[in-house]
# Entry
Amino acid sequence: MPSISVIRLLALAIFAVASASAVRAEVAGSGHSMAMEHHASHKDDFSFGEPSEARLAQRTVAITMTEMSFEPKILTVKPGEIVRFVITNSSDVDHEFTLGDKATQQAHRKEMAAMVTMPGMPPMHHHEANAVTVRAHESKEMTWKFGPAAQLEYDCNIPGHFEAGMTGALIVQ
# Structure
């Protein structure tokens, strides 16, 4: 008999494909680029901050990705603070780490869901300023200078992952 974890992952995969079918036509006709190695639907002009250089970081925050969650689940940063994130995926599945406000995250999830059902689409890899894909048992870094006070999230928007609880709160205050 399959383990609960395997059953849960299969259910999430079925959910993701079903969800993607509903939004595929809308996103595909929206003019968004869905290129092989990246998809750039977001401008690199974010209201919640901008990428920065690791050498300028005022602190380093370790983020651990598990099967379907982030640790820590809540972070607080200061407006203008530069944070170097070291993101380690300790699970057996690939994940992503995307910084953004609720609207940015929702738009990105919709786009990711649509990509799942597009024929011939290769695996999703991020080259966006606010997102990195972290393969199973690997680590990546991202350095970010935060903007004004805001309620942000760090999510994994691979279809089904956010819905399974792969989200964290990031408070800029």
Remarks:
- The chain is about 25% helix and 30% strand.
